[in-house]
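Appendix B, example 12.
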Amino acid sequence: MDTNIFFRQATLRICGSLDIDKALFQCLDFLKQHIPADGIYINIFQPKRKAIRFIARADETESTAMDTVVPITDEMCAALESPHRPRIRIINDITEDPTTSRVAGSVFKGRISILLMRLNINGKHLGVVGLYAHGLNRFSSEHGALLKLLHKPFALATAFALRQLNLRKTNTQLSQENQYLREQLSGGSRDGAIIGSRGGLQQVMMRVAQVAGLSNTVLLLGETGVGKEVIANAIHNSSPRATGPFIKVNCGAIPDSLIDSELFGHEKGAFTGASSTKKGVFEQADGGTLFLDEIGELPLSAQVRLLRVLQSRRFVRVGGTESRQVDIRIISATHRSLEDMVSEGSFRQDLWFRLNVFPVTIPPLRKRSQDIPELVSWFISRTSRRLGLAGLPNIPKAEMDRLISYTWPGNVRELENCVERAMILAEHNELKFDWLSPQLHHAPIPVPEKQPAGSNSLTMEEAMRQHIQSVLQKTGGKVHGPNGAARILDINPSTLRSRMKKLGITS
């Protein structure tokens, strides 16, 4: 037999299909003319998982893509990784070889003979291609020599198939992550429609429809947790910029020293630690929408620079000299009264005028209780998928009435957290919310006692320190959560912690 012809004909069949199982089927049809094989398979060695993974097999009648994982012992892993293990192994009775018996025996039944070829890429053991035949003593050294000729085409085809499998897995993960992120952004929407758009948010959605097709700035107002990001995303998705990026930045979560870098980017070497050039959120949002959440938390120094960019749509990276222009729409949001902050001198009046072109106030959940049943249904469905639960739990009418009558100081975000907690604690497939009580409704904000006549007036810092300490004392030092100091003071928790640090207050 001419080995060159054998190699060429076998290689043409191995490379004849992008699907490794179909390639094996074509190759087996040719190899049977020279080797007494009833089937062929490929498996992959996965040392980190301590397992062998079958990816494809073929016999005389069909081919099958596989994803069968067989666990192996530490000793078996060590034996497979040994550089002294021969490339071709003939096992004419798999019961005589512990590793082959464990691995092949989990897939193939009965007494069989196996002809194995180790597949190596760049010195690493990738896996094996195996020919099997029913019965004992079916393979000879001549058969092994023929199979050995095909090492390179089999190794390359297997490496390609493995890459394809990894790409599919990555694409699946990305698809799942994308779905999760979309759900997070829609956090209160079903099938693209925002829950409450025909109920408690009807007026809000009318305002969204009025402004979505334009490019002017929008200011979203409302308590913490009402869904300002959901409305911002709805404006973006209904606008001509829907195909562009939607970039969100929480102004209250950026340290003062990094605000310029986060907003406008920096050049390499602009400051210690700037090891590479970085685009700021203004550049990232070019052609789309920039959502500035908690805009009221920006320090005055950053407000000046933000105003300049809003006026000209131009900026300079930190450490740079080139003026850059961007085409973006600005949507900002806050739970605070910017008008009061302007009066106090903590927010620039000209910036407020620039942002307040089209204000949209989002009502708190307690003012749109008719939306609660649908929101609960949506959160149950989404949480069930995320937690991998088999079925959807039930909510007794009394428990739904409890949810509707509760005032929800944390709004939609608090409702979602309560639903998740109830699902974790659920018994007999029923949700209970008995920890919710009317006594947990908005707690009154303590008012500092008046100073006696003639006493020295407190400085602003001293008054603030006493006020925060008083609230912390009532919450037992709790900062976050429904009954935390941040909720009572109506302030972002990270902002409160920052102020506590400046005032020397420990919780």
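DSSP finds 19 helices and 15 strands in the chain. Confidence is low (pLDDT under 50) at residues 439-456.
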